[in-house]
Write a structure and sequence with these properties.
two-stranded antiparallel sheet, 10 strands, binds 1,3-dihydroxyacetonephosphate, binds glyceraldehyde-3-phosphate, eight-stranded parallel barrel, TIM Barrel, 13 helices, alpha/beta, about 15% strand, binds zinc ion
Length: about 325
Amino acid sequence: MVHYSELGFVNTREMFKHAMKHGYAVPAYNFNNMEQLQAIVMACVESRSPVILQVSKGARKYANQTLLRYMAEGAVAYMKELGGNIPMALHLDHGDSFELCKSCIDMGFSSVMFDGSHLPYEENIRITKQVVEYAHKFDVTVEAELGVLAGIEEHVSAEKSHYTKPEEVEDFVSRTNCDSLAISIGTSHGAYKFKPGQPVPPLRFDILEEIQKKLPNFPIVLHGSSSVPQKYVEIVNKFGGNLKGAVGVPEEQLRKAAAMNVCKINIDSDGRLVVTAIIRKVLTEKPEVFDPRKYLGPAREELKTLLIHKNTHVLGSANRY
Ligand code: G3H
Ligand code: 13P
Ligand code: ZN
């Protein structure tokens, strides 16, 4: 058992209080490899933004859970070496069982999500509560979810989105004692969020407002918040890829949500898109290249640029520390 404070992480409690008070959202960026992690740390140090390093079950499997935990520990030292002094949390994204959440807590995560959104309401409460009871013994914060996002929510296939019901949130939060709540207001995971060639339907700010009324000053989380910048979709397609009809959430809508009670915004797909676009471009333009540093390096640089843009112009988390 290693406690997250020994690794230099903080839980999300103070982060969210600060974000709520100042009307911005903390970025939660997923990583699976060293270059993504480096880009996230460099971007957040340079833009002086707090950050939540986010790890999925799949990322743990891909990178190896032990190696990943040491990478995360190294990220705190790296942040300091870069001259940074920003709060960093290490968070499990979409935990699907008590055991997985416990394993992450025991390995030094400062925050975990239990995603019971696909479960019957009472079952979601039961397991969320079990996770909260264990997590709080170590002052680890817990994100829960109510409402189902459209598309594939990890191992859960949802035909269509079931928006969060505002009438359920008070009961759910008071009975589970969770620290933040992920909700469904029209975002979805992946690069195909809306119908291509049609106006993007606005997020359901009416539901968010209702939830804000029921749970004043309670941190809300938005998953599926990639904007799928068309610039990168075009690069992918120009250099041999096939991402026809990829559409994301407009940046202005995320900015609006961040100024409300949304304190954490999850972004993964945009990072994947940038990295793929640059690797495709470099390999096509320089077919003689076979040193991975020659294509992973530029991909990392472009990812850093994108994340600084998000912190500064979308989430409003830049220059807060
Ligand atoms: O919301 C899911 C994240 O993008 C993580 O995706 O399970 O493929 O690592 P993953
Ligand atoms: P995107 O697929 O929109 O990047 O969402 C990521 C996410 O919600 C991670 O939990
Ligand atoms: Zn998610």
